[in-house]
Design brief:
By secondary structure, the protein is an alpha/beta fold. The protein has two domains: about 150 residues, Aspartate Aminotransferase, domain 1 (Alpha-Beta Complex), CATH 3.90.1150.10; about 270 residues, Aspartate Aminotransferase, domain 2 (3-Layer(aba) Sandwich). It has a seven-stranded mixed sheet with strand order 6-12-11-10-9-7-8, with helices on both faces. Strands 13-14-17-16 form a four-stranded antiparallel sheet, covered by helices on one side. It has a two-stranded antiparallel ribbon with strand order 1-5. The longest helix is centred in the last third of the chain and has 22 residues. The structure holds pyridoxal-5'-phosphate. Pathway: Amino-acid degradation; L-kynurenine degradation; L-alanine and anthranilate from L-kynurenine: step 1/1; Cofactor biosynthesis; NAD(+) biosynthesis; quinolinate from L-kynurenine: step 2/3. Catalyzes the cleavage of L-kynurenine (L-Kyn) and L-3-hydroxykynurenine (L-3OHKyn) into anthranilic acid (AA) and 3-hydroxyanthranilic acid (3-OHAA), respectively. This is Kynureninase.
Length: about 425
């Protein structure tokens, strides 16, 4: 496809976009009477217009039914989580019984490690990416210590080659091969939050299994963003948050995937609670945990219905749009952003995109290094109604000056080509 750097062209792309009406289903923060240029769906997705309606409905059930709402009404609360399975399964490529929405991401990561990080003297290592999201680093370190191992020995981090920002798949696979005999868990992000790189999940899964390790993914930035086929890839477990690309609200409950090969075995070790217990017998309050088959058997507590409710509004839109169409638009939208940023680099290199150039290795996010005036640029963008993300970053050779990375996530669900054009237009006019 040949892109053009004009507003007319961007509007033409929008006119041809079969998903363009989904934008009208979301509420945008405003700037000077118009919609902000919102590119932070990788941090907190926008509010679906119907989110409030779904919450109100449950408040009303609570008002009308009190405790009986657990068993009565249109969607009894004890069954509510099941209504979240079809879209969750669609988004991550799973069977409905392999997914559960519960807790929050870091909590679920710990729960999954309880099941899938069970070190012993021979096998105690975890292989992960260097520079993983901090919460994941803390979770892994604390698990390792809690089991009595030394993080310096037990955690193997695969880092980019010197002077590079991205990981080579062959380096990941080589690390798995090298440490295989001592490795019990391979744990990667699906998509690195900082660089926007998508890892080769099927290759990593196959390599981990070849050495006899479990393989899990943190899909915080991948779920609702890039194609996922967790069941077919044979991934052992995964976790993700639903407040980023899945637009379910601040601190919304997290998703967890447990492959049927483990989920359907009651003897798979786990931490248990009454909400994971045999539904028919839960309220008999008897001894002896009998897990619900599937990922639902990892639930601990009575579910947060009011926090679930906005997710239903979001899920309806995901099911209506469908991941394949969203991905097709996303590839074009991100490529258009890339094209426009590249055209600003023609005279002098100003914005160094560190996200992979290959569309298959990225999602709806481009991260670019801005040079030493980056923070001023970011402030200028903010003043002009752009909501995006800034991270400090010390570039080698910048004499200690703080430079930074701007992350822009044009999400196919509610961003337009015109949004992307307007953003690039602001970059063009930046006097820095
Ligand atoms: C956003 C994100 C988190 C956040 O974890 P919470 O428990 O939801 O606060 C964790 N890990 C990764 C990789 C993330 O991108």
């Amino acid at each position: 496809m040949t892109f053009q750097p004009t507003l007319d062209f961007a509007r033409q792309m929008d006119a041809q976009d079969s998903l363009r009406s989904f934008r009208d289903q979301y509420l945008f923060p405003q700037h000077q009477g118009r919609k902000c240029l919102y590119f932070c769906g990788n941090s907190l997705g926008l509010q679906p217009k119907k989110a409030g309606e779904f919450i109100k409905k449950e408040l009303q059930h609570w008002q009308e039914l009190g405790v009986e709402g657990h068993f009565e009404g249109e969607l009894p609360w004890t069954q509510y989580h099941k209504s979240l399975a079809p879209a969750s399964a669609h988004i991550v490529g799973a069977q409905a019984d392999e997914v559960i929405i519960m807790n929050t991401l870091t909590v679920n990561l710990h729960l999954m490690m309880v099941s899938f990080y069970r070190p012993n003297a021979e096998r105690f290592k975890i292989i992960m990416e260097a520079g993983a999201f901090p919460s994941d680093q803390y979770a892994v370190e604390s698990q390792v210590r809690w089991h009595g191992y030394d993080p310096a020995e037990a955690i193997v981090e695969v880092a980019p080659r010197p002077g590079e920002a991205l990981l080579h798949t062959e380096d990941i696979l080589a690390a798995i091969e090298q440490h295989g005999a001592q490795t019990t868990l391979v744990l990667f992000a699906g998509l690195n939050y900082y660089t926007g790189q998508v890892y080769d999940m099927p290759a990593i899964t196959a390599a981990g299994h070849r050495v006899g390790a479990y393989v899990g993914f943190d899909l915080a930035h991948a779920a609702g963003n890039v194609p996922l086929h967790l069941h077919d890839w044979g991934v052992d477990f995964a976790v993700w948050c639903t407040y980023k690309y899945i637009n379910s609200g601040p601190g919304a409950p997290s998703g967890a995937f447990v492959h049927a090969k483990h989920g359907n075995k009651p003897q798979t070790p786990r931490f248990a609670g009454w909400w994971g217990h045999n539904e028919e017998r839960r309220f008999l309050m008897e001894k002896g945990f009998d897990p619900i088959p599937g990922a639902a058997g990892w639930q601990l507590s009575n579910a947060p219905i009011l926090a679930y409710a906005p997710m239903r509004a979001s899920h309806d839109l995901f099911l209506e749009a469908g991941m394949p169409a969203l991905r097709a638009k996303s590839e074009k939208l991100t490529a258009y952003l890339e094209f426009l940023i590249d055209s600003l680099n023609i005279d002098e290199p100003r914005f160094d995109i560190i996200t992979p150039r290959d569309p298959a290795q990225r999602g709806a996010q481009l991260s670019f290094l801005t040079g030493p005036t980056g923070k001023q640029l970011f402030d200028y963008l903010t003043q002009n109604g752009v909501i995006c993300d800034w991270r400090e970053h010390n570039l080698p050779g910048e004499k200690g000056e703080k430079a930074g990375v701007i992350r822009i996530a044009p999400t196919p669900m509610y961003n337009s080509f015109e949004d992307v054009w307007r953003f690039a237009d602001l970059l063009t006019k930046a006097q820095l």
